[in-house]
Amino acid sequence: MSCILAIESSCDDTSAAVLENDLLLANFIAGQKVHEMYGGVVPELASRAHLQNIVPVVDAVLKTSGMKPGNLDAIAFTRGPGLMGSLLVGVSFAKALSLSLHIPLVEVNHLEAHVLSHFIRTPEYHHAPKFPFLCLLVSGGHTQILKVESPSRFEVLGGTIDDAAGECIDKAAKIMGLSYPGGPVVDRLAKEGDPDRFKIARPRMDKLNYSFSGLKTSFLYLVRDELKKDPDFIEKNKNDLCASVQKAVIGSLMDKLVQAARQTGIKQVAIAGGVSANSLLRGEMEKAQALYGWESFIPPFSFTTDNAAMVGIAGSFKFADKKFCDLSAVPYARA
Length: 335
Ligand code: KG4
Ligand code: ZN
What we know:
The protein is built from 9 helices and 10 strands. Helix 2 (about 85-100) links the parallel strand 4 (about 75-80) and strand 5 (about 105-110). The longest helix has about 30 residues, at about 235-265. The strands form 2 sheets. Strands 3-2-1-4-5 form a 5-stranded mixed sheet, with helices on both faces. A 5-stranded mixed sheet has the order 8-7-6-9-10, sandwiched between helices. By secondary structure, the protein is an alpha/beta fold. It is globular and about 65 Å long. It binds 5'-O-[(R)-(carboxyoxy)(hydroxy)phosphoryl]adenosine (KG4) and zinc ion. Zinc ion binds near residues 110, 114, 139, 273 and 306.
């Protein structure tokens, strides 16, 4: 039995969670509104907001979970990848708390945490894949297809050579003047749009790799050319534009995932990361069960974008293996 406090501060969400083994007792996320007016995350403002948020968030999560600091067996924290200043706040807080409570520290890789989020148990929900499984990890910063052999063995089968899928959708949203982050807005507007109205060039990549920078540029040129003819083009066609760009990105993601499943013969297939909240992607994953005989694993919405619950589950696997780290652990910005 282990009781773990987890801390996530890699980007612009300050989050803390408490887990008893794989059971999630509480998970709190404090978002950061300060970035909205800039249309993207401002690193320096993010670290300052983490500093303000971290104590209240940890306090709230402990109270909700019913645990006292003395009940904790370990502190798990995101060591990277992410924004250096943001990571530093979580890492330093975790170190200080472990030192004062005399309990071990467990470092967690943010990307592995997204993948392992499928193992979180809640009183209402538990649907974990069997090893080995495939995972399409799609977030604002990463796009990869992984073969997951065990909680600590990941093989990268393919990934993006340029932009991440979430970044591409966010940039398309920015071109249309939509608010940041664009992913959820595009998802919502696309529901009322015609996905076949605009043809957006899909990349043709070899092996299991992705590329999204050409798709983004093709979208930019389309909008730019149409705006010359009609200054109200975006306003009049917002829904169709969102549906068309979303279809191109999600279609590209699914094509390679299907190819990876075919090549490996693995039928346990999961999605994880912020873009796994996308309704078209979730729908395609459901269809794939009937089409290809997969068992699809689609995370609950609360575990798609950044959260500490996933850091806690990754931490509890490591805790079980006694994989601790010491106070010399420093954050890393890149994977
Ligand atoms: O995993 P995450 O919270 O942070 C990173 O580790 O990057 O992912 C954030 C990304 C953003 O690009 C955001 O636009 C995207 O996830 N996202 C979505 C949706 N919800 C969040 N993209 C498409 N559809 C959504 N519903
Ligand atoms: Zn993330």
